[in-house]
Design a protein that fits this description.
The chain is an alpha+beta fold. Helix content is 44%, strand content 26%. The longest helix is centred in the middle third of the chain and has 54 residues.
Length: 497
């Protein structure tokens, strides 16, 4: 913006003009080149932290109080105004007072000519520190929102969880303007800590070897489950954080818990650290918690993907086993008969028993299952003829599935040839665990009040199937006692869980 050069009679304001301008919070200045003096109004003196009296009007003297980052800009603007007889407008930072505090000023000035000779400059200044602080805070808020958005996108696209966590730490360092950021987690029991990721300081401790958590602020935060600000760790006698920072001095820190959405599971803690004492703002705390939430969601997603992969692998294993069992069932059933019609009768029945056993165990997620419900299910059609005696015994999924097939086969044989083939027949099934040496489950199947028992002349498919399951799959033993009063079968299976 250019103006007509000011004439000498107009360039030195009178006291009434200065008072009026200063009432609006504006400072007035004029620079007399001939006298080599700069004159500042009281307002401007307060803005610049200057003592009363005129100042020397040398360019070098005025430069010393201007921030180095703004010196070239402001004095280039002044020189341009002098050479072009135009107005300059500029915003710049100055150092004020013995403590050299930074203050932002907006300045505007016009050159003054006398008989076409440049004799000075005059203008006004306004303190815009609060405005600049608000603008800077807004810029930082926008920058933080953009950083959160980028981090969220990285969380979606990243397949390397360690690289993502390192990226999260670097994001915190850049946006909170701290020296270092670290993610801590408990290692094993709660007496040890591990650094999961870090960003910032080069050479800072980054290995994942566990170290004692006792006495550190990280253990305090993780145990409490609440993020916390530590404005001055140098004077906080509660903590010894030497192990956390490799002996480096940390003056302050801001922490946030990395927890699942329902806060039932804590994955760890993220901390941002500054070399000197410092109070972090609420917006900085909110930013760090947002980063912690994104990390938590990413870790939850990774855990869900790992579970899904494990389930698919387990399903593939189970289905493969079922197919193998179907083939074995067919081979054993067909070897035990020369009659196709008999094969059509026996094979579907055994496949049905296999499917029933699979459904019973898989409905519980293939988790450990109690023994009694398995026996009850196999003997459901004969409830009035059956007595079950035994304590609560829990079996792993594989063992429970195998024993369910055993009970179905025993129930089928008993219903066709044994005690359950007659209404007066009775069946007693008892079990207990022998704890001498390796714990062993002992099951005794005792039939009574049925047809007279005769030892078999040959081993049929049912007997072969029972021994195959008990001896090969369960690594146990099966003993048959063909007492005329009733068949007694004793099964012993080592417990692995």
């Amino acid at each position: 913006m250019s103006t007509s050069p000011l004439q000498p009679e107009a360039w030195i304001p009178d006291d009434r003009y200065v008072a009026a301008v200063e009432a609006g919070g504006v400072g007035v200045w004029w620079w007399d080149f001939k006298a080599r003096r700069v004159y500042w109004s009281p307002n401007l003196r307060r803005m610049r932290g200057a003592e009363p009296g005129p100042l020397r009007g040398l360019m070098g003297d005025l430069r010393s109080d201007v921030h180095p980052g703004d010196r070239d800009t402001i004095f280039a603007a002044i020189r341009t105004a002098m050479s072009s007889a135009g107005r300059y407008e500029v915003e710049f930072r100055v150092f004020v007072g013995p403590e050299r505090a930074i203050r932002w000023l907006a300045a505007r000035g016009d050159p003054v000519f006398e008989d076409r000779e440049l004799v000075g400059m005059t203008g006004v200044c306004q303190d815009i520190t609060e405005r600049k602080a608000a603008e800077l805070e807004l810029q930082r808020a926008v920058s933080k929102q953009e950083a959160i958005s980028r981090l969220g996108q990285a969380a979606i696209n990243s397949s390397d969880i360690d690289a993502f966590l390192a990226n999260a730490c670097e994001t915190v360092v850049a946006n909170l303007e701290v020296e270092v950021c670290k993610i801590f987690e408990f290692a094993g029991d709660r007496s040890m800590l591990r650094i999961r990721a870090r960003g910032g300081w080069t050479g800072a401790r980054s290995d994942r070897r566990p170290f004692p958590a006792t006495g550190t602020h990280a253990a305090h935060v993780l145990s409490s489950g609440q993020g916390e600000m530590f404005a001055d760790l140098t004077t906080d006698g509660r903590f010894d954080d030497t192990a956390l920072f490799g002996g480096r001095t940390v003056g302050s820190g801001l922490t946030a818990i990395i927890a699942s959405e329902d806060s039932q599971l804590s994955f760890g803690m993220i901390g941002a650290y500054f070399a000197n004492p410092r109070r972090f703002s609420d917006s900085e705390s909110s930013f760090l918690q947002s980063v912690a939430n994104i990390i938590a969601m990413t870790l939850e997603r990774q855990a869900a993907q790992n579970r899904q992969t494990l389930l698919i692998r387990e399903l593939r294993h189970r289905v493969g086993n079922v197919f193998a069992q179907l083939i074995a069932l067919f081979n054993q059933t067909s070897m035990g008969t020369d009659d196709i019609e008999e094969l059509r009768e026996k094979y579907p029945a055994r496949v049905h028993a296999l499917a029933r056993a699979h459904s019973l165990i898989s409905d519980s997620g293939w988790k450990p299952t109690y023994l009694a419900p398995l026996i009850k299910d196999a003997l459901e059609a004969f409830t009035d003829q059956v007595e079950l005696i035994g304590s609560e015994v829990q079996l792993p999924g594989d063992e429970a599935f195998a024993l369910t097939l055993v009970f179905y086969e025993l129930a089928t044989n008993a219903s066709k040839y044994g005690c359950l083939s007659e209404a007066r027949g009775r069946l007693n099934v008892s079990w207990h665990v022998r704890f001498e040496g390796q714990p062993t489950l002992i099951i005794v199947w005792t039939e009574g009040c049925g047809p007279a028992v005769q030892p078999p002349t040959r081993r049929g498919f049912g007997s072969k199937l029972l021994r195959m399951i008990v001896e090969r799959q369960l690594r146990g033993t099966l003993r048959s006692d063909f007492d005329p009063a009733g068949l007694v079968i004793t099964i012993e299976v080592p417990l692995t869980g």
